[in-house]
Amino acid sequence: MRKIIASLLISVFAFLAFSASSVSAKVISSKNGDVIIPKTEVVNDDLFIGAQTAVIDGTVDGDVFIGAQTVKITGIINGNLHVGAQTLDLSGKVSGNVYAGAQSLMVSGSKIGGSLFDWRCNCNNR
Fold first, then answer.
1. HEC profile for the chain?
2. Distance separating alpha carbons of residues 91 and 75, to the nearest angstrom
3. What confidence tens digit (pLDDT) does each residue in 13-50 have?
4. Mean pLDDT over residues 59-79, rounded?
5. Cα separation of 77 and 87, whole Å?
6. Which of 27, 30, 22, 29 shows the shortest CA–CA distance to 43?
7. pTM, whole model, 2 decimals?
8. What whole-number distance in Å separates Cα of residue 24 and Cα of residue 26?
């Protein structure tokens, strides 16, 4: 019985060890500056940005998470977009959902494949 349990445990550990996949993401932060993804750049990963100003003109093949004062997106996001900003200007393409928490939200000429969730509130009228 012990041999069966031991061989079962070894099999399970071997399976877990050899089937583990790597996880990665691209992280960009700039305390006092701008982060710009140019039109010619393609990011093949999830993208995390923390900056004063974030501009995405290129393509991101993954989810995007942004915390910035000003965010402008004219490029393509093949995933979901999560934004916390004072100003969000969205005129690009997002294939998934857009989760936005922004004081000022401008959406013009953009294509959103999923839904737009906007968490703005007038906190003075609670």
1. CHHHHHHHHHHHHHHHHHHCCCCCCEEEECCCCEEEECCCCEECCCEEEEEEEEEECCEECCCEEEEEEEEEECCEECCCEEEEEEEEEECCEECCCEEEEEEEEEECCCEECCCEEECCCCHHHC
2. 8
3. 555 455 555 556 677 766 678 999 999 999 999 999 99
4. 96
5. 18
6. 27
7. 0.76
8. 7
Question: What strands, in cross-sheet order, belong to the sheet with 76-77?
Answer: 42-43, 59-60, 76-77, 93-94, 111-112
In Å, the largest CA–CA distance within the chain is 69
Strands 47-56 and 64-73: parallel
Domain ranges of the chain: 26-120
| Residue 62 region by backbone torsions, left for phi larger than 0, else alpha for psi between -120 and 50, else beta | left
Minimum mean pLDDT among 9-18, 55-64, 86-95: which range? 9-18
Taking a C-beta distance cutoff of 8 angstroms, is the pair 87, 104 a contact? yes
User: Would you state the pLDDT for residue 89?
Assistant: 97
